[in-house]
TrEMBL record:
Keywords: Carbohydrate metabolism, Glycosidase, Hydrolase. It comes from Streptomyces thermocarboxydus. This is non-reducing end alpha-L-arabinofuranosidase. Belongs to the glycosyl hydrolase 51 family. The keyword DNA repair does not apply. Signal peptide: none annotated.
Length: 500
């Protein structure tokens, strides 16, 4: 059966905030060391930033880059990470049982972002696990105050005369999780977050603040946590965070393929909770969403890896290798984010390099693109503008976790120049899916490209030995005729169809 939908410029979801294509650099494993930063690497610049990685980061098209954690942030002492490198202390990182050398710190992070280009924006996470209001304010003053105070002058003394201009701040990380150093109840965290936010706004009313939501939809405190935290912070914060990771459990690939069903429900549940608190407070303000950690992550393998560590520097951790199957699910997660662009303002692919990442590196050796690199780069490049409302009429398939799920998952974005990009996933593992899209009043006359990520082997992946085993190819037979787009989506495929 054919899957169908209609596109009409009168029916839109919302405008895409560029920060929907954010990412995340945590001091975890080799994300920073031998990932982004490797002095002595043949491509490294004078600051130790790997040129090959920088080129791939630019190609990937990331915008906001969250830093420095993650679970790491709950033990982070910002002052360890500034000033002369040789004087910076080595510290135990309790979250990842590693040793942090602080050779890469705040100034290096900002300089990395500036090298990426103007599209890259800092998103700084604060330690509200083992620290609080005072340290958050000190960091804010050090980073953002122009000069003439002890901390802002210290920054200049450290070589950074210009303020870092950090606008977007996360008030802690996953504070609902018992694994978090300094874990809190919702009431405890809500008060800390509110007082930190109030103080930060005294320093600069223009900051944008993200309160911690749940670290996952399956947390026992989910929704109640958000309601309690927002009751305390509603007028003081801009966003609430969501985190979600997906993997095939017990070999249930069909449910894994429908992971975005869960992601979309998660978003809708959090929106409902935000609006419920807003209604209770009789507020006209809307709290939007920062989906600041999302990805496919084979997480069930992680605990064992971490507990075996004996405080090494930059160990190989969470270095998942992504297959074509993973990339199709990953693309579907991107579609879920775009379909909720009216409320999801920020989203961070966790993470950027080596650690559950689209970019992999070998110390002293090459960098390469994982399969997930392609959907992200294409969505960031073409998914800018107005999201059109897509309501699919699709054949379905049975899943253990989500019941009947649509075989087609899709969205469409109209750029400022009037061109439209359709992003579509065929979840069928075996069957091609015919697609028929009615185009109303969009003035579109031609297909300018159809890119497909699919492979006869769904387990195919890019590796050090074979870094270009999987790359997108051109789709065949896609046509636009008389206001109708027709295509056949290959089994288990991610598709980007460009219309002008
Ligand atoms: O991204 C990896 C980890 O996942 C982060 O440190 C933490 O916030 C989450 O649990």
């Amino acid at each position: 059966r054919t899957a169908r939908f209609t596109l009409d410029p009168a029916f839109t979801v919302g405008t895409v905030d560029p920060r929907l294509f954010g990412s995340f650099v945590e001091h975890l494993g080799r994300c920073v060391y031998t990932g982004v930063f490797e002095p002595g690497h043949p491509t490294a610049d004078a600051d130790g930033i790997r040129g090959d990685v920088l080129d791939l980061v630019r190609e990937l098209g990331v915008t906001a880059v969250r830093y420095p954690g993650g679970n790491f942030v709950s033990g982070y002492r910002w002052e360890d990470s500034v000033g002369p490198v040789e004087e910076r202390p080595r510290r135990l990182d309790l979250a990842w049982r590693s040793t942090e050398t602080n050779r890469f710190g705040l100034s290096e992070y900002i300089s990395f972002l500036r090298k990426i280009g103007p599209q890259a924006e800092p998103m700084m996470a604060l330690n509200l696990g083992t620290r609080g209001v005072a340290e958050a304010l000190q960091l804010q003053e050090y980073a953002n105050h122009p000069g003439g105070t002890a901390l802002s002058d210290l920054r200049a003394e450290h070589g950074d005369k210009d303020p870092f201009g950090i606008r977007l701040w996360c008030l802690g990380n996953e504070m609902d999780g018992p694994w978090q150093t300094g874990h809190k109840t919702a009431a405890e965290y809500g008060r800390t977050a509110a007082e930190t936010a109030r103080a930060m706004r005294q320093l600069d009313p223009g900051v944008q603040l993200v309160a911690c939501g749940s670290s996952g939809r399956s947390m026992p405190t989910f929704a109640e946590w958000e309601a309690t935290v927002l009751q305390e912070t509603y007028d003081l914060v801009d966003y609430i965070s969501l985190h979600a990771y997906y993997e095939p459990l017990d070999g249930d690939v069909d449910s894994f393929l429908a992971s975005a069903v869960d992601m979309e429900s998660f978003i809708e549940d959090v929106v409902a909770t935000c609006d419920h608190v807003g209604a209770r407070l009789k507020s006209r303000k809307k709290i939007n969403l920062s989906f600041d950690e999302w990805n496919v992550w084979y997480m069930s393998r992680t605990d064992e890896q971490v507990s075996a560590l004996d405080w090494p520097e930059a160990p190989r951790l969470l270095e998942d290798s992504y297959s074509v199957l993973d990339a199709v699910v990953f693309g579907s997660l991107l579609i879920a984010l775009l379909r909720h662009a009216d409320r999801v303002a920020v989203a961070c692919l966790a993470q950027l390099v080596n650690v559950i990442a689209p970019i992999m590196t070998e110390p002293g050796g090459p960098a390469w693109r994982q399969t997930t690199f392609f959907p992200f780069a294409q969505a960031s490049k073409y998914g800018r503008g107005e999201v059109l409302d897509v309501r699919v009429d699709s054949p379905t398939y049975a899943t253990e976790k989500y019941g009947e799920a649509d075989l087609l998952h899709a969205t469409a974005v109209r750029g400022e120049d009037g061109t439209v990009t359709v992003f579509a996933v065929n979840r069928s593992r075996t069957e091609p899916l015919p697609l028929d899209v009615a185009l109303n009043g969009l003035g579109l006359t031609s297909v300018t490209g159809h890119s497909v990520l699919a492979d006869a082997d769904p387990d195919a992946r890019n590796t050090l030995a074979e870094p270009e085993r999987v790359v997108p190819h051109a789709g065949e037979g896609t046509t636009l005729d008389g206001g109708r787009l027709t295509a056949v989506l290959e089994p288990l495929s991610w598709n980007v169809i460009r219309l002008a």
